[in-house]
From TrEMBL:
InterPro entries given in the database record: Glyco_trans_9 (IPR002201), LPS_LOS_Heptosyltrfase (IPR051199)
Domain of life (superkingdom): Bacteria
UniProt key word Glycosyltransferase: yes
Gene Ontology molecular functions: transferase activity
PANTHER family, sorted: GLYCOSYLTRANSFERASE HI_0523-RELATED (PTHR30160:SF15), TETRAACYLDISACCHARIDE 4'-KINASE-RELATED (PTHR30160)
Record's keyword terms, sorted: Glycosyltransferase, Transferase
UniProt organism field: Halomonas litopenaei
Protein name stated in the entry: Glycosyl transferase
UniProt xrefs under CDD domains: GT9_LPS_heptosyltransferase
Keyword Transferase: yes
Length: 370
């Protein structure tokens, strides 16, 4: 367990929120966590997450305590230790944003009196409050489904939402202070010798193995198309900063070389000391381009301009896995309906380049008039 902040109101319920899967899934829980923490009185919010996403949980302003889920493959003594910890937590309620049978059974055995989860799969049998959502239809963004669960929990606990009726918390869901953003931008500018009057665009060509993505060649063509359009309209083209996850460094470095040879201003992002340092570093960007990966959703929580590339499969659509930034800061592209749903080569990169260049012109205009 790791403590962060603490709820001051002794009347506040103690709430355990579970989202123990991948980084992108966890980042799309931040709007729900914000809604819970803005309730009156504000609950003490703990989360159960895997070790991988724990560094982000410790950065989240809506979380008080972090508990590590060792996972279903962990030894029995680790599972027993987690159960003992949760039994001692004095939790009023448990909200599982995505449940499995193991987690449902864990909540029941922990003796948490109010346990809520989506009404799906066998795991729902372990919960005494269920919310019907039918997420498999992908009719709403994932973060909206999570928000609906948070609002149901607020109502079940008899709390005030702290928001006007029918209004959700608004971006940014990771509200960094301007000084923190300025510090990240200054550090990156000094490390790479960047011109602050040009847009800084982070490009993340890897997928983390979680989603199909554009090829490095397609990303190179996209970047060149964006540069060309800005140059044609008399605008300064961006600095391109290539980022990479573990094991993706060679792809990023090769793409830097390709862009440099094409005459673009391209750099490899300086090494980061782990996930939290990498996430904070994204605050230096004006825009973030990637497939439907965890880093794209970190950028969304920071309310950066995001340009995402998605397959068209129902479970992975741009609507379902929409970033949670403001709508006017969000671009998403996917194969047309007459193409195979994972045929990323069918995406219209000319249209993507034109739309992205238009957003970057607004960045340039804002800088010139600031």
């Amino acid at each position: 367990m790791t403590a962060t902040t603490a709820s001051a109101d002794a009347r506040a319920p103690r709430l355990l929120v579970v989202r123990n899967d991948k980084l992108g899934d966890f980042m799309l829980a931040w709007p729900a966590l914000a809604a819970l923490k803005k309730a009156k009185p504000a609950p003490h919010v703990s989360v159960l997450v895997p070790a991988y996403t724990a560094p982000m949980a410790r950065l989240c302003p809506w979380i008080d305590d972090v508990f590590i889920d060792p996972g279903e493959q962990a030894p029995k003594d680790a599972q027993r230790a987690l159960l003992a910890t949760l039994r001692q937590g004095g939790f009023t309620a448990m909200l599982t944003l995505y449940s499995t049978t193991r987690i449902g059974w864990l909540g029941l055995r922990s003796g948490i009196p109010l346990r809520m989860a989506p009404a799906t799969k066998w795991a729902q049998l372990f919960y005494n409050r269920r919310v019907t959502q039918r997420r498999s239809r992908s009719a709403k963004p994932e973060y909206i489904y999570n928000l609906e669960l948070a609002e149901a929990m607020i109502q079940a606990l008899g709390l005030s939402s702290g928001q006007p009726s029918q209004q959700h918390p608004v971006p940014p869901y990771w509200p960094l202070a301007p000084q923190q953003r300025d510090a990240q931008r200054s550090a990156l500018g000094q490390a790479l010798g960047l011109d602050d009057t040009r847009p800084w665009v982070f490009l993340h060509p890897g997928s983390g193995g979680s989603a199909v993505n554009l090829t490095p060649e397609a990303y190179a063509g996209l970047a060149q198309g964006i540069d060309r359009r800005l140059a044609e309209s008399g605008e300064r083209p961006p600095h391109w900063i290539l980022t990479a996850g573990p094991g993706e460094e060679a792809v990023a470095e090769a793409l830097v070389k390709t862009l440099d040879e094409a005459g673009l201003s391209a750099y490899r992002q300086p090494a980061c000391a782990g996930l939290a340092d990498f996430a904070r570093s994204l605050a230096a960007a004006d825009a973030f381009i990637a497939g439907s990966t965890g880093p794209l959703h970190v950028a969304g929580c920071l309310n950066l301009i995001t340009v995402g590339f998605y397959p068209s499969h129902r479970s992975a659509t741009p609507l379902r896995w929409q970033t949670c930034n403001d709508a006017d800061r969000r671009l998403a592209f996917h194969p047309p309906t007459d193409a195979a749903h994972q045929d990323m080569s069918a995406i219209d990169l000319e249209a993507a380049a034109a739309a992205t260049a238009a957003r970057l012109r607004k960045v340039n205009h804002h800088r010139s008039t600031a």
